[in-house]
Amino acid sequence: MSRHEDDLIKELKTLKTNRSLDTEKKEGMRMALQEHAAKKQKQQRRKVKVKQTFMRFSTAAAILIFGVFVYYFVSNDQLPMPSNDQESSRENEMYQEDLTMPEEEETTDENEAAFSIEEQGTEIGTIMLEGSEQEETLYNYTIEPYGIDFQMREFLANYTVEGEEVVFSNDVDYVSVDIRLWVAESTTIDEMIPEVQQRFGETFDNAEEPEATTDDNPYEGVTQSISDPPQGYYLYQIDDNVLVIQYEYGIAAADGMAAAWEVLLNSIE
Q1: What is the 8-class DSSP label of residue 100?
Q2: Are 176 and 250 in contact (CB under 8 A)?
Q3: Using CA of residue 183, residue 185, residue 189, residue 190, what is the dihedral sign?
Q4: Which residue, 174, 151, 136, is CA-closest to 267?
Q5: Under a CB-based contact definition with an 8 Å cutoff, are residues 154 and 137 in contact?
Q6: Is 170 in contact with 162 (CB distance < 8 Å)?
Q7: 3-state SS track over 213-259
Q8: In this structure, are residues 133 and 262 in contact, taking their beta carbons and an 8 Å threshold?
Q9: How do the domains of the chain map onto residue ranges?
Q10: Separation between Cα atoms, residue 125 and residue 71, nearest integer Å
C-alpha cells in the first residue's frame, strides 16, 4: 500500500471521529478515493490484457514449431529407401551405359567418314570434239566425305566403288578406258608422287619428270604420263588432302579422251 493511500485512510478515520467536519470536504475526499480506486482497477485490467496477449503468441509459436518438426519427420519416414538389389541394378545399368557410349560414338564417326560417290544429276554442256563444238549430257558427282565435285562425259558415266576408290570405265570400240579417283588424307603432292608411281611399277622409270597442271580449276596440281599405251596420273592439293586421278586407256580412245579430260579436270571444285 502506498503512502498516499495511508494518508487517505487516516483522513477517513478522522472523519468518523470528527462530526463537526463540513460536508463539502467530506465529499471531496470521497471523490478522490473513488478516482484512485478506478485508476487502480484500470491499471490492473491492462496488466491482465498484456499478459493474456503474450500467452496467446507464445502458445501459437510453440504450436507452429511443433508442426514443422512433425512434418519433417513424417516426410522423411515416407521416402522409400532403395534396397540393396535396386542399388546394385542401378550401378550395373550405369556401368553398361559407360561401356556402350564410346562404341556408339566410334561407330558414328566411322559412318560419317565412309568414302562414297554421290550422284548430283546431269546438265547439258558444250565440248570440243574433233575440232568442233558439240552439246552433250554431262554427269555431276561428289566425292564424300570430302565434298569434291566433278563432271564426267556421258560415255564414262558407268562407275563402281572399290573400297575407298571410285572407278569410271567403258568400252569405246572395244577399247577399255579406266579412270580411278581416290583421296589421300593429310598429305602433300610431293609425298604422294613416289607412292602413286609405285602403283604403276616400272612404267615411269624412264618417263619425264612430273610437271604442273594447266587446268582451269583453282587447285595446285602436277601430272605425269606416258603415251604407249596412254596412262598416268593427276594430283591436286585440296586443303590438307590430295585428290589422286589415275588413268589408263587404249590409243584408239585418245581423241574422245581429250574432251573427257577437259570436262573432268576443269570441273573439279
Answers
A1: H
A2: yes
A3: negative
A4: 151
A5: yes
A6: no
A7: CCCCCCCCEEEEEEECCEEEEEEEEECCEEEEEEEEECHHHHHHHHH
A8: no
A9: 3-77, 84-112, 116-267
A10: 84
Residues 231-246: pLDDT tens digits?
999 999 999 999 999 9
Indicate the pTM of the whole model.
0.59
Return the CATH number of 116-267, one of 3.40.1350, 3.20.14, 1.20.5, 3.40.1000. 3.40.1000
The backbone torsions φ and ψ at residue 110, rounded to the nearest 5 degrees and listed phi first, read -65, -40
Per-residue pLDDT band for 250 (boundaries 50, 70, 90) equals confident
Q: What is the pLDDT of residues 60-108, one digit of tens each?
A: 666 777 766 666 665 665 555 555 555 566 666 666 666 555 554 444 4
Q: What is the mean pLDDT of residues 4-27?
A: 57
Q: Which residue has the cell 570440243?
A: 128
Q: What cell was used for 244?
A: 589422286
Q: Residue 34: phi, psi to the nearest 5?
A: -65, -40
Q: What is the DSSP string of 38-49?
A: HHHHHHHHHHHH
